[in-house]
Amino acid sequence: MRTLLNIQNKLVPDLVQVLRKRYDLMQSIRHLQPVGRRALAQNLQTTERILRSEVELLKDMGLIHVSPIGMSCTEEGIHLLKEMDSMADELFGFNDLALQLQHILHIPKVIVVAGDVDVSEWGKKELGRVGARILKQVVQEGDVVAVTGGSTIVSVAEHVTPSSHFRDVQFVPARGGLGEKVEMQANTIASSLAAKSGGTYHLLHVPDRLSPDVVQSLLGEAQVAEVMQLLHKARVVIHGIGDGMAMAMRRKYTEEELEVLRELGAVGEAFGYYFNAAGETIYKMPTIGLSLEDVKRADVVLSLGGGSSKAKAIMAFAKQACQTVLITDEGAARAILEEHRQSSATI
């Protein structure tokens, strides 16, 4: 297969470009369906005029269905995408990108998916689809799975399906509420994962940001103590990686607090810890939930983060040396390689 692809890339490179364009188009339709032509053009950063001929071709081939409410993939189209998924890693260079990231970030397994979350709305859906597949592969009967909040982990829950792998699995929120949309909070995602998979869940009814005194007081509550005991036993952790300043703003930090984080060089955040570019912890929120020490004791740490803007955050968290699997996208992967190239050039 690799030899054939190498020959194809050398003799007919334009064929691979056409395949990639149509692959991205069908991926967008799969994840956004039903989707109108204007919204699809905006998502793919092209024009409706350019898109029209491609849509007509895919329609004539029976790969997509066009109706008044929008476009969607046919069963044949979904089947074709599944077949392409198995070869896209080689065909479009995702495997090579993943191997380079494994070497640079020192993470045992890296998976790179198509797209860039920063520019493609469907990119987050693709991260979630692959995340759900990997979760199913690594989970074992009777596991405790710790889950953080965030839109990317929401997408994982959307793609999970019932399986015997999830028998007696308990999903536990890794931390309290962030004070944002309820559907993006860890409690909601844990319950959704349990409902979709056939497992069970527990809830952690505490705010995300607390004063040290309140933290100590709540740790004495029976319900909180029960969840904390489960978190300490989590064998699998699934979480998103956040941009440091973006997460601080979502948590409604004051301008003074934000300025302190800027001065300290915050580039990444995970589990309430803020990291600088060297991977050093520069600030830890007083909060209730999974600690970094708990994460490092887990057998499987599944990290998800995409978008070129997340490159520094992903690199910073990788220095914690606790991840077993990183799922990211092409945009972030290429940005990480460029950051690494620039840093190496200055040494």
TrEMBL record:
It holds the Pfam family CggR_N. Belongs to the SorC transcriptional regulatory family. InterPro entries: CggR_N, NagB/RpiA_transferase-like, SorC_transcr_regulators, Sugar-bd_dom_put, WH-like_DNA-bd_sf, WH_DNA-bd_sf. The keyword Transcription applies. Residues 91-338 form the Sugar-binding domain. It comes from Brevibacillus halotolerans. Keywords: DNA-binding, Transcription, Transcription regulation. This is Sugar-binding domain-containing protein. Residues 18-87 form the CggR N-terminal DNA binding domain.
